[in-house]
Amino acid sequence: MRLISAHVARFKSVTDSGWFDIDDKVTALVGKNESGKTAVLEAMYRHNPLPSGHHTGFEELRDYPRRYRARDKTTIPRTEPVNLTFLIEDEDRAAVAEQFGHNALSRGEVTVSRRYGNKSTWWSPIADETAILRHLVDRAGLDPDRYVKDSFDATITALSADDDAAGAIALAKDLEERYVEADVRAILLRPDYAS
To answer: I need a surface site. Which of 25, 119, 181, 183 has the fewest CB within 10 A?
Structure first.
């Protein structure tokens, strides 16, 4: 994946940077002293920080703009100080397709964000659940038109209900323990696929 745009808001001196593009070659942050250029870079770093001794999370007391803290007290935990959009490149698509089929990705880019007081990241949906189910059912040697329904749970129910097909029962058990959106994210985050 390749970073293509970013947005920083409600972080230190930055009220709202607005979305800005990240160029393949050079991106310049231009502004007066104390206007928030370093804060923008720091927020982007904290999206996926290295264990370097620097702050890695977003903390309300230290990072939220003081002038808004009292007013925004109840909404701060849901505030996203950083949103990054990544392009899903060809090698990323190939890695996902290898496991989940060529139509597994529903989009060509993904937006990832973090919130105050939470180390988790939130991803915009990127997996085409129906296409993935069709691929997995077909790969198991079963008929996708017979088993794939309008939801993940309905497909599992259809697979589980077929006592005559051991492959259908086995696939249903496998699918019950999976969250394909997370599986797709894990593939995209693998260092050997990183661009």
So the answer is: 25
- Please, which residues bridge with residue 190 across strands? none
Place of tokens 């939130």: 122
58: left (phi over 0), alpha (psi -120 to 50) or beta: beta
Question: How many alpha carbons fall within 13 Å on the CB side of residue 98?
Answer: 9
**Cα–Cα distance, 6 to 129 (Å, whole number):** 27
Give mean pLDDT, residues 153-169: 87
SS3 75: coil
Greater model confidence, 195 or 158: 158
**Residues 71-116 pLDDT 10s:** 999 999 999 999 999 999 999 999 999 999 999 999 999 999 999 9
pTM for this predicted structure: 0.84
What's the rounded Cα separation, in Å, for the pair 60 and 66? 9
C-beta separation of 110 from 1 below 8 A: yes
